Please model this.
Amino acid sequence: MKKLLIYLRDYKKECILGPLFKLLESLFDLTVPLVTAAMIDRGIGGRDGGQILRYGGLLILLAIIGLACSVVAQYYAAKAAVGFAAKLRHALFSHIESLSFGDIDQIGTSTLITRMTSDINQMQSGVNMALRLFLRSPFIVFGAMIMAFFIDVKAALIFTVAIPGLALVVFGIMGISMPLYRKTQGLLDQVLSTTRENLTGVRVIRAFHREREEEQEYREENNMLARAQLFVGRISALTNPVTYVMVNGALVALLWTSGLRIQVGSLTQGQTIALINYLSQILVELIKLANTIVLTNKSLACAGRIQGILEVNPAFSIQMPGELGGMSDCADGNFERKGKEDLEEKEISLQDEEEHSGGKGSIGEAGNLRGQAIFEDAALCYAGAKEPSVEGVRLVAEPGQTIGIIGGTGSGKSSLVHLIPRFYDVSQGRVLVDGVDVRQQDLHALRQKIGIVMQKAVLFRGTIRENLLWGNEDATEEDLREALEISQSMEFVEKKEKGMESHVAQGGRNLSGGQRQRLTIARALVRKPEILIFDDSTSALDYATDAKLRAGLRKLDYHPTIFMVSQRTSSIRHADQILVLEDGKVIAMGRHEELVEKCQVYREIHEFQFQKEGKEGA
Amino acid sequence: MSDWKMERREKRMSQWDTIKKVCRYIKHYMFLAVLSLLCAFVSVVTTLYLPLLTGDAVDVMIDRGRVNFADLKDILLQMGIMIAVTGISGWLMNVINNRITFLVVRDIRKDAFHKIQKLPIKYLDAHPVGDVVSRMIADVDQFADGLLMGFTQAFTGVLTILLTLAFMFRKNVWITLVVVFVTPLSLFVAAFIAKKTHSMFQKQSETRGQQTDLIDEMVGSQQVVQAYGYEDKALKRFDDINERLEKYSLRATFFSSLTNPCTRFVNNLVYAGVGITGALFAIQGRLSVGDLSCFLSYANQYTKPFNELSSVITELQNALACAGRVFELIEEEEEVDAEGASFARGSLCDSDGAGFGEGEVPSKGEASCKMRRLEDIQGSVRIQDVDFSYVAEKPLIQGLNLQVRPGQRVAIVGPTGCGKTTIINLLMRFYDVNRGAIYIDGTDIRKVSRENLRSQYGMVLQETWLKDGTILENILFGREDATREDAIQAAKLSHAHSFIKRMPDGYDTVVQENGENLSAGQRQLLCIARVFLCRPSILILDEATSSIDTRTEMKIQSAFQKLMEGRTSFIVAHRLSTIQNADVILVMKDGQIIEQGDHQELLANGGFYRELYMSQFVSE
Model:
């Protein structure tokens, strides 16, 4: 929470004035019973109509001033809370944008979205409530007690017993029922997940006709939930009756004491009424305070979760050559040095820009290394994993070459290519692009050189054109058409009424899997990258389209280095080098013909896919 | 104008309908409901009686030396009793209302879940999972809140208002009139603010929605965003919306938070008004000081239920809308089997015919409902002149004919959307044909119960659904009476055993939600093991091995060969290698079978299949 408070920094004025005006309002609230008492004692007691009207007028005046104060307070509280939430949202979003793939994998997308939306909203109302009520409620409770002491010390002693007693009951019941509520929430989540499970698995459940068992299971969970709710309900149902009894018990005591005090002449009727009034105010405010605490607690929990995300350091930073060695994680204390580096980096890139838009110039041979990728004994071990997903990779991909990568699920194919755009950092060895370690390059510039087509074809809401322009904002109409052509998307894009201006729904839901995949390929091509990576991204294409796509790629005039991850030997058989992966290790490397001859695994895959006629057909 | 009126009337009618339905659920707890109302009545009366007694108490202590302790003692004793009665009846009412609410909610959820198991797949395909889930969880919860609030507050609120009026009129008509006329002001103020802020809230939630969409899209596809260096632009778009949201949010929050101060202001006015008039009457001796204190506290109590009632009414309306949505689900038409008890279980997936202990039972059913029962089938399948479409305007399958002999292996290939999966939907009767018929062993599948029909099949789908539970439980899903040994045997046959062994708890490893601790291929292997366990007469594999790498697939294929021996099987596959050994390959396009034959024949034909097949090897 402390760290999040800096987002309130710009609202210091609001944070002070809001509660202050709230206090003023409650101060006026507290004087009302005194005025009433005076009205009764002097007005009625003295049979003075003028006095009554004067005090009555004062009451109305107090009401008006109270309203004004309260409006001002509400405004400042709302302004601080809303502004705080907006600043926090901005900070969190930009932080999430900077997180590495590894972090996002670990945290999970849905978690991030919840943090961004409902958690921050919860915090906004928490701040709002806290600014308004956290001071007001205790102030009124203790203020009422102090006022009571001013009126009559003996009668006020009842307050000193009643207040702690009430507080004990209100907070005690809350303390007991809160964990129980959490438990029922857990049970409700269980009911929810069973419901969801039964909806998503309806075909399987019906195919195995397990409807009755599923229903039985659900019924038990549902009953358990109801039982838990009843239990906690029974406890929290005590709050109102018990506090009612306590407050009114205090009232009885107060009346008796007042009787005694009036008898000896140290208290008046009007003052008795004022005391009664204060007593009833206390209960209302204590209950409000309890609710505020519940809400604040929730907000604090949200704050903790949000802070947890903000504390995840972006794993990537540019490193000096000396730092690289074997250690991959950027140690935390290095901010100062990094800052300097960034500056240096910028200077270098400024100088370079004139020479060549592509490569980084620290080595100075950018020209002939354009598109080169080298793996030097590279390994990647995901956070929390026991074994590396891929290790000991040695590979030199020369500019313009096509590299095929094949292997079973989980053999580390994707992990391998994800090292090139530095989606993850190597845990050992290094990866060089254009002759420079990727960790020494500006991340943005590095990725600018690479076009990657992911396994999962993701498009964004907008038009087809807008999606293609992700690859390169400045692409010409020609570039776009060429990319569509080569990715074999032209045929279906042209069929659309609005062509490239056709609407794409979120995630590309209004397109088929194959169409989506082809458009993501086009998007990568628009960029005219030095290195083009296909991460098993032609699986939704039929063989004919796949073949046409490969033919098109070969004709590209900018000759990108191509990494082709696939499960089909047909997709990679013409590659310059093929890596066969198994369990994260390269078990064989070579051209298609060599591998068929030498590598048993590759041969098996190939023969299984091609069978007898395959060889003849080829 | 009249349209608008009609609409309003209809809305009210449907609200009535919903209320009636809610009452039907409450009927089971009639006794509790009556008891609750009784408690509410008692607690309201005693609560309101207390200020009267307080006033009396004030009146017996007038001045120095003029305190009547005997009367005071009496009054205070009465107060004590009243307080105790209020406390007890209030607590009882709360407990009872809780009970009614949560039990009704439980019953509604139970019925809704039961309905899910009975709804046609068509309905479930057409309604997003999130929608149905939110009806069953969020809507029901909202309804529960509304019901609870309505019960406790609506009734007691109305009662409090009426009784307070009665008590006050008995004491003094004029002061009562002040209260009655000034108090509604706070209602007007609250309603006015609510109306004014409504549009601001709408704008706020609209903008919030836009922002959530953007977050969803950008964070959900973070990899692409980063790969294409879109971060800065995303942040800019985000800030645009964020600024707008801040503006709208401030307005909505501020103006809506005026409600409390404003109603409090009106209450203070009432208080002052009562004070002034009361005091003036007191001077004339027409009202005692105690009565005045009584009025002051009544004025307070009188406004509270008004303020609460307005929120109760919105809450109740909201609750009714939610209940309406839930009832819509509960009343959705069920799939009819024409058979009385569709849950009467046959023996599962038993192709050996040994387990048909209930063999005699169906004959009864047949007599009464004309339902037939598939027993120990051979596995011949005939599809005759079938037309089918999901949407009436878009015909999909037309005049489909197919004859499959027992034990044949049928493969279905073709481009996406050609109707491959639809055939499986029809065979399983997830959907029914529009025209024509499908026969198994000569029996129209619409003449047997869905359960009986489905127990003849074993199915592996592309989407690998697993239950929340252990790996063992998931395999046993195929046949519940199987033993652990059977399950392990099935896992071995489907080549799942080796990876299960390596899991932390072996067969007792819990499959995490969405199976995050399993890869797609492993999930698929478990689904296959599930089918291996139940040994069905007819096997349906819909892209069953799509997520498994080629080497594992090779192993499973051989296992499938064994499983399929003597069984009719339907295989939908993307990879042609998967289906080359099929007896019949159906090549589908646009809902039609355009080619039919075995692999060699189709290649020789030189048609679409050959084109598909050869494209695997085309290089240039």
Observations:
- Chain B has three domains: 1-161+307-335, 173-286, 381-614.
- Chain B has a mean pLDDT of 82.
